[in-house]
Amino acid sequence: MPYDPSDARSALPGATATAPAGPAADADHVKFYELPPTATEGGARTWYGRSQHLVIGYTDLAGETEFTLPGGGDESAVLMPETTTTALISLNGETTEVPGGTLSFLPPAQATVRLSGHGRVVTIFTARTAPPWAAAANAESYREPHPNVAPLTAWPDPAGGPRLRTYDLDVPGLAEPPFRLFRCSTFMVNYIHPRTGPRDTTRMSPHKHDDFEQCSLVLEGDYVHHLRWPWGTDLSEWRDDQHERCGSPSLTVIPPPALHTSQAVGAGVNHLIDIFAPPRLDFSRMDGWVLNAADYPMPGEA
């Protein structure tokens, strides 16, 4: 329980004697289906949303489109959930054809990405090195940094140095929860297995994060994001519980230290993925959880 540091009860075991860095932020629910696209080019419509450390793009692809990355800074990612899309990625004088059904981490170098086909494509950048054209619909929410979010510190460079790395998404991963975890040096992608039908409401998983945000991207179906903010010592900062229904596509940014869980409610396929920056240390410490752990060392392992 939180107590003001002047309260003698703050010395009790398990008591919280120190206040958080600042008031907890609101959750951001960026419902792309209710917004005009940020960019319409060729056969593509693209929306962007952001958290403190990430800018995430969602593209409805029907044909071809191309974008150029300026290089420098941090790695970025191209995620193609469907095998009906492909990408030609050109960097360092070489062009690689990447099939759909994959997640690719791109090194911090100048690159051109040409997308073709029909389906959905997700692009991920860190906010500090996102291209200027990746304008987030909720940028106003981050005009000032959120005090409870820890600074983004990059993990060690990948084994063998930065280069294009592509991973197949059609891999087993964990059984329960149905996670498929991949990380690069600055963020982690949890490509969760799709669900069919509503979630079993007797098996919810409310939890919180002390100092990092969770970006939950709904690719298909409908979810209700349940959030509850902790009560601190300042009553003026208390807020009501939130139960926000979000269809697809949408991005919800869950702030620390809000208690949260997401409930699939659609009758058909429901598919949500989570993205974290920096990579989650707790998940990374679990043997076998991160599927590309051999490529990306944890801090202290380089």
UniProtKB/TrEMBL annotation:
SUPFAM superfamilies: RmlC-like cupins. Residues 1-25 are annotated as: Disordered. Residues 14-25 have a biased composition (Low complexity). InterPro entries: RmlC-like_jellyroll (IPR014710), RmlC_Cupin_sf (IPR011051). It comes from the Bacteria. This is 5-deoxy-glucuronate isomerase. It comes from Acrocarpospora corrugata.
